[in-house]
Amino acid sequence: MNSQNQTSAMSQKIFKLGLSVETVSVYLMCCSLADTDATISTKKLSEMWNSTRASLLEGLKDLETRNIIRRIISDQVGNTVYILSDVKNWKPL
Questions:
Q1: Cβ neighbours of 10 (radius 10 Å)
Q2: Are 81 and 41 in contact (CB under 8 A)?
Q3: Is 11 exposed, middle or buried (0-12, 13-18, 19+ CB in 10 A)?
Q4: How far apart are CA 62 and CA 15, in angstroms?
Q5: Whose CB among 25, 26, 82, 92 lies 3.0–4.6 Å from 69's, allowing a Cys bridge?
Q6: How far apart are CA 61 and CA 70, in angstroms?
C-alpha cells in the first residue's frame, strides 16, 4: 500500500458497534487484505485465522448481517469472496 495515495480501509466505527472480539478481528483481517489489494476470500482469511473455522464463519456472518462486508461470489465448496461496504451503508442491530 502506498500510504501517500491511499487511506486505510478500516473504520474506527467498528469498535462502537458492540461486536464480539472475533467479529472485529475478522473485520480487521478483511481490511488488511483490502489495504494490500488482495482478494478478501474465505481461503485467504482461513490462512490468517488462528481460531476455529466456525468462529471465522460466524464473524463473517455477523459482518454480512450488518452490511459491513458483502458477498460477491461463492462456489459450491465454500470458497467465498467479499468486498467491504462503505461505512454509510452499515446497519446497526
A1: 16
A2: yes
A3: middle
A4: 14
A5: 82
A6: 10
